[in-house]
# Entry
Amino acid sequence: EAQVTQNPRYLITVTGKKLTVTCSQNMNHEYMSWYRQDPGLGLRQIYYSMNVEVTDKGDVPEGYKVSRKEKRNFPLILESPSPNQTSLYFCASSFQGEGTEAFFGQGTRLTVV
Amino acid sequence: GESVGLHLPTLSVQEGDNSIINCAYSNSASDYFIWYKQESGKGPQFIIDIRSNMDKRQGQRVTVLLNKTVKHLSLQIAATQPGDSAVYFCAENQGQNFVFGPGTRLSVLP
# Structure
């Protein structure tokens, strides 16, 4: 089954404790991205990757890092999480090029206390 | 910057009625649009898309209309069912990336 898989689905952590949210897709998509979803603000892009070893900042990259060492994986790293990073995070992937739909993971609800 | 937005944050319709969800976009250069449906606890799911060289596209019970003159997009759902209750997002393709609106919550009343 074609899918985008995120882990964990739920995470509660403390301020400053490094964490990684994993994302994996099995559709051989070149393009992957991370979004955060906050009430009233919709989906905002954090980082994206056009292909292996190619990553770029989205609209809200501060406080986040990503890596793309393999085509299928695109982890989101929070080196020192803060409470304002409490949010619902989505990973998405698609084929390269304009005009192709993005497939989303199930989401990771992160709470930073 | 350029953005995509929705006219109404919530919409309640009677089961069996038709639903219309609206979206305004501001980037006249955008050439591809998608409607996503997000059910509670799930990620957004693709419903239907439309390219800028079209003004209407139909799927199963859903129709998307694009008015490039006024930069307006709408999603029409025929014979709305309880399973249609969700948040609906329009997304505008800008280069490789998508810009999403804040979403409209559709509630289907029995």
